[in-house]
C-alpha cells in the first residue's frame, strides 16, 4: 500500500551499502520505519530526508514491517538544530524521548504537533531547558503518566503548601506529607511551573524568564517523575548532563 504522510525523523541509522533506515513520527499513522535507498550517496535526492529532525512529506510503499521511500518533499529541514552542538543535544533528546517513551498507538497527531512545536521553539532559541521540561510533561501525559498537580493526590485538598511525591505521581498537602517520606520539597516557583506545564500546549510556549535555582528544582522534579514512572535510558540525556557539568 502507498502511504502519503507528514512526518518528522526521530531516528536515523545506516543500513547496508549507502542506505538508511529512519523512524518517523507521523501526524496520522503513529510511528513508521522507512528504508531510504541510496540516502548516504552524495548525489542522493533523498539524503536530506534521512536526517534527524527533518520535517517532510513522505510517500512510501509498505506491505508489512518496514516501508520503502518512494518520494519526499521537505517542509522544514531544521538545519539550525544540527549546526549548533547545544541545540542538537536538546533536539536529539526530544526525538529520542518520543522514540523510546511512546508505543505506536500513543503517538497520535497531538504528539506530532507537540514535537513539531518543540523543535520550532528550540530553533527559535526559546529557553531550551524550559522548552524541554514542558515537552517532557507532554510526553509523560501521552504515555499516561501525567502527574496530579492541582490537588493533593491523597486527600484532594487544593489549599496551602505542597510537596511533590514522585512516587505517588502528584502533589501532597502538609496534612498528608507523611504518606511519602521521600517527597521532594520544591519551591513555589518550580511547583507553579509544573502546574502551568500540565495545562499548557507546546504551541503556546512564549518566552518565560526562570531563575536558575527554580530551573534546577524543576529538573529534579521532572526527572524523578520520569525515572519513577517511565524508567527510560536515553543516550542523549547522558550527553546533556555532561554538557551541564562542563558548560561550553
Ligand atoms: Zn492531602
TrEMBL record:
GO terms for biological process: DNA recombination; double-strand break repair. Keywords: DNA damage, DNA recombination, DNA repair. Gene3D superfamilies: Nucleic acid-binding proteins (2.40.50.140), Recombination protein O, C-terminal domain (1.20.1440.120). InterPro entries: ARFGAP/RecO, DNA_rep/recomb_RecO_N, NA-bd_OB-fold, RecO, RecO_C. Signal peptide: none annotated. PANTHER family: DNA REPAIR PROTEIN RECO. This is DNA repair protein RecO.
